[in-house]
Structures are given as structure tokens and as C-alpha cells.
Design a protein that fits this description.
Layout (H helix, E strand, L loop, with lengths): L10 E4 L2 E4 L9 H17 L11 H10 L3 E3 L7 E3 L5
Antiparallel strand pairs: 1-2, 3-4
Length: 88
């Protein structure tokens, strides 16, 4: 058939790209969707899923402080801390 309509399977040239009749083009939003999914995946991996427990318990810290001659102070505002002996 002659005219503007193309038969199924014929090749149409648009600019530099070649399309076969019936081929689907990717929507323009596809790169944005892929980028969004990748970004959300990275954000999910960056947030910790569980809190990390402390390395030492307060009892162990107090024992270490007293073992080295320091004074252990209980402080609810700043947290417990060790005051080293001035003669160290």
C-alpha cells in the first residue's frame, strides 16, 4: 500500500533512531523511576535497622576507673563519668 500508513514490520526512521512498527519506546519517566528506586534503596541501607549496644556496661566502666585509681561519679544529666586521680 502506498501512502502515509506503513505495513506491520516495516522500518521507520526518525532522526538517527530506527524503530520497527509495533516496537514500544521506553517512557520518558523511566530514568526518573529507576533513579528514585536506586536512591530509596541507598537510603534504606544507610539507616541502621537496630541500635548498637554499648561496648562496655556502666559496671565495667566503673571497675576500670577504680582499678586505675580514679573516682567514679554517678550523673544522670551528663551520664556517669570517671574523674582521674590528679597524681596520675
Amino acid at each position: 500500500m502506498a501512502g502515509s500508513s506503513q505495513k506491520r514490520g516495516e522500518i521507520a526512521r526518525r532522526g538517527e533512531r530506527v524503530y520497527r512498527a509495533g516496537m514500544r519506546r521506553l517512557p520518558r519517566a523511566m530514568p526518573a523511576v529507576v533513579f528514585g528506586l536506586a536512591l530509596s534503596g541507598l537510603a534504606a541501607c544507610a539507616t541502621p535497622s537496630a541500635s548498637v549496644p554499648p561496648l562496655y556496661t556502666p559496671v565495667e566502666l566503673r571497675a576500670e576507673c577504680e582499678r586505675h585509681g580514679g573516682w567514679w561519679h554517678l550523673d544522670d544529666l551528663r551520664g556517669d563519668f570517671c574523674e582521674p586521680n590528679g597524681q596520675m
